[in-house]
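Example 3.2
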Amino acid sequence: MLYTTLTPQTAGVLLALGQRGIQHVVFANYDDHPSRLREVLGQEEARSSSRQLLDQLADALSPLPSELRWVLEEALRSPGEVQTVGQVAARARVDRRTCERWFTRVGLPSPRHFLCAARVLYAHRLLQDPGFTIEDVAKRLGYAQTKTLQLHARAYLGLTAGEMRLSLGSGDALARVVQRFLTAPPNQASVSSA
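Structure, written as tokens:
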């Protein structure tokens, strides 16, 4: 992300930087309102968290068909947009049952657990910003009720949303989710390798 002024002299530089990977530019005195900056920085931080989770899951996801992998990566990057197993299956152009079989085949938890874990990690990142209330985060991630976010936070991180906001770093949250739900149990790992 780049924060700069928009002048005729910077236009060429911005194009060159775009070719080298800069994806977001915030222009001074144009779109640098505090709420816009908070939104852009939050999205960037969430992408970082998603990238870390994707890196940890790369080996587990590699046997999946490319269309399904692509949809799961999209779900990790923006969990508010892909919320149900039906949406994952439809975007991957497979039926729901086939999607679930693929998860079982590669030793992952159900697609529902995968999506819930992604949403809880994203919620954790959003809650690190004091400008978001738990209700704001629940609404942003598509939860019908704040209580559902609280239940998922307790199930996936062992803490309420308020507790995870105060006492859990991003690395710790990621490690807990990977350890609890995204790592095959020792018995299953030895069975699948046999």
